Amino acid sequence: MSKRSAGFTLLEMLAALMLMAIFFTLLVNTLTGVRQSSEKLSHHQWQQAQQQLSLHLLTSALHQALPIPAARHPHQLFYAFSGGFDFVAPLPRSLGSELATYQVRIAGHSLWLQLKGLSGQSQDIGKARVLLGGVHKMQFKFLAIDAKNQPHWLEHWSALKQMPRAVALSWTGQHRAHRVVIAIMADIVGAQ
To answer: Of 162, 161, 155, 163, whose CA–CA distance to 183 is shortest?
Structure first.
């Protein structure tokens, strides 16, 4: 009769190590997947926060848009949004709250903003910045009220005696379409 000693056989040890290796591999793969999902979610949330901040800057500036002084006759006011989509509005308080020209452009699937001073040199206030990334198509429309008090959305603003009542900004991003309508406070009718 052979007596078995207390302990594990080599085969039992190898089987236990194999099971632990399989469990460890599954655990590492699961944790890696969770980390990657978390990073994607964090990046997506960061992009949404950036988009909301950019839109807040643009909407608050548009809400306070003012007539643009005409280049040839500085004492006259020019109400068109010139050069595609430029408008005059106060700067954010962090930049001094003075008036500046906001130049909004789309280039390379991004919405860009450049701020320029209103002085004669028209100096840049900081460098051009991307407001929104992943913009595939963008459109501005202007709300006008006709003589019969009927609202109409126009592709271009050319009324010299008034500001548009609102501006609609529509763009197509990577996954969906967006639209923001911003009311404009200034309505200087008949100013010379």
So the answer is: 163
Length of the chain: 192
Instruction: Supply the range of the domain harboring residue 78.
Output: 52-183
Can you read off the two tokens belonging to residue 138?
């963008």
Please indicate, yes or no, if residue 64 is contained in any of the structural domains. yes
**Beta bridge pairs of residue 143:** 153, 166
179 in a structural domain: yes
Residue 39 lies in a domain: no
Q: What are phi and psi of 29, to 5 degrees?
A: -60, -40
Residue 16 in domain: no
Rg (CA), the chain: 30
Contact 131, 113 (CB under 8 A): yes
- State the pTM of this model: 0.59
Q: What is the count of structural domains for the chain?
A: 1
> pLDDT tens digits, the chain, 192 residues: what are they?
566 667 788 899 999 999 999 999 999 999 999 898 888 888 878 877 877 777 777 777 777 777 665 555 555 555 556 545 777 777 777 766 677 778 787 777 787 888 877 654 455 676 777 777 777 777 888 888 888 888 888 887 776 567 788 888 887 877 778 777 877 765 544 433
Rounded distance between C-alpha atoms, residue 9 and residue 12, angstroms? 5
